Amino acid sequence: MDLTDKSTKVRQGEELDLKVVEHFLKDAISGLSGDLVVEQFPSGFSNLTYLIKVGGTDLVLRRPPFGRKAKTAHDMGREYRILTALHPVFPYCPKPLIYTEDESVMGCPFYVMERIPGIILRKKLPKGLELSPAQMRALCENLLDVHYKLHSIDYKAIGLEGFGKPEGYVRRQVEGWSERYKAAWTPDAPTFEKVIQWLHDNMPSDYKKPAIIHNDYKFDNVVLNPDNPLEIIGVLDWEMATIGDPLMDLGNSLGYWVQSDDPPEVQAAGMLPTNLPGALTRAEMVKRYEEKSGINLENFNFYLFFGFFRIAVILQQIYYRSYHGQTKDERFKVLIFGIHIIDSELKKRLKSEA
Q: Cα separation of 341 and 149, whole Å?
């Protein structure tokens, strides 16, 4: 049974000019021949990801979304640069092939990379894939271990010094994401005023050893080996990667981590299979990272709470586009419910911190 992640028909309003794209790719990448077919990977709410088939070659094209864009997001050049630097030392990265800022091709910068075919986990396991509790536990451990491998890379040695600004990273993240939420706020959304104030009042100093951080590391951004679903063979979606605090990166990842004893509404809103029997809890993931890194993570709640809030901001930025009619994607309309769930859950958690 083929469990690999599938592409589908391109969504209305997100089509590419096939003749222009085909001409560009065949000029830019040697060895391409045959007819060009374009499909789209349907998941994800940010940068658009297309499967480009040219003869017997499969490529992946990434471009920014249509509509309103966050000021510092969707930088195709940054994404291409980090893949170029990382791929030789972190082979989980797809191999980047070509980047262009020539807007005559599709009206925006974009890049093309090799495809890593495999299994991508979302809310429910693909039909035909079953994981025992022991296998699910092992997969969670592998997910954490690959994340730690990324944080362990010497970013200066691979030419990424200056790729980010690690000094003052925590403060910039708290202040920046707070402002992003306010800028994307809509009248039907919560204000998050108490949460924002708590994050400002409780932010720690930057961790002393900055690292390459992915900033969106989770199950639906990793690729599993179809022949051994416990093995991670790829890490995707590097648009928010930078040099910064690895503990913030871990908190961002665990913000997505819904576990089996979470309230029903939280589990209903979860988009990943992290509540399956055998899956590690958030606390167990933190403990494993603590054991591998030697970092004392006793006071991890700040990073986790920020991770929750950051997801709410991302959802609100996406929902803003739907609220103002900037996208026809029907998936965006329901995001407001997830934003309210995060707000309610964070308020409960802050009461227990008081």
A: 32
